[in-house]
Amino acid sequence: MPSHRSTTSPALPPATAATGYRALLRNKEFSGLYIGFTLTAAASTLSGFALGTLVNHRTGSPFLTAVSMYGATFATVLGALTLMSVADGKRPRRTLLLLQLVSLVGVAAQAVPGLPIAARFALLLTLGFFQSLGTGTRLGLLAEVVPASAYAPARSLLNITSGGTVITGYAVGAVLLRHLGPYGVFAVAAALTALGAAVVAATVREHSIRLTRRPGLRRTWTANAELFAHPGRRTLLLNLWVPNGLIVGCEALFLSYDPGRAGTFLAAASAGMLLGDLTVGRLLTADRRRRLAFALRLLLAAPFLLFAVHPPVPVAAVAVFLAGIGFAATLPLQEQLLEQTPEAVRGQVQGVESAGRMTWQGIGAAIAGGLAQYVAPGTAIAVVAGVSVTVTLLCRPSRRTGPGVVQG
Length: 408
Hints:
mainly alpha; 74% helix; 0% strand; globular
């Protein structure tokens, strides 16, 4: 895979750029990507909440309601397998804007009263497909507009904002729903999507470093084949996807485990994730992050083993909080993935990583839910957590350094 360097210099010189959150936000292009991402995440949260409410009202089906709120994540893998190479096209800024405009049309269409449920689900899956391409394009641009030393703090800030946006979005969505109804919430989501596109258009320059060949299905498959043929990147993706997805499956059983305390556990998990991303991404050096990566991957799953003995609620909440910190293991792994990826396909590789992680979260929820049909929810949580620990131990990479070797 050839590597082509940018014809435009980054906003901050890599050798001297600061990596703190304030320094990142003073970078106009990063700030634009960050604000655009935040607005898009808010719009997606509001749209999913409105659609879930509408589907629940019309069908009364818990399954269809859940799929309407989270089903778009399953379409992301389709984007990763087909057209993710557009994330590394010659004009990534234009590509991102076009994809956001497609999302705008889709969200606005959901605001049409009387639209059949089948059509709404078709729109949902279509949006998930194009949003996965937008994620790859945005992450490819992120690697261009910030120096390598600032990549982990930048991803950390995006992760923190994403978590906070989802929590706030559901709270605000509930208020808007009472006053505007689902169609009004769709309209607000469309306005946020449009605003996000406008911010990107006003702040992000065009970066033309990319492929000399036209993106498409064949190019996507070729790059994906090279990605998975590389032992180091393959191990990184396995560690990014599987342990993470299985633990999301554990969290999906909170409601079955203790309906009255599920909110407490989910809040503890969110608080742990925020603290972990803040600490690991902002306060630790790159070397320190790498040295702690394996311990963080174990921390992600090990506390859930306590659920086998049904511990007191405070103990369980602390365990969930500690496990949430372990999600920060994604940051050093993503750093290493970026380092091992040629510049010409960084957007595609990061898009595949994101799509695979989201897909494995759905798979993890299905595995845990299926197991809980036959054993107690606490037992199912402990078993799935044990599998996550096992995968982490078996996939622990060599401590040798060098090309293609993952440090852990």
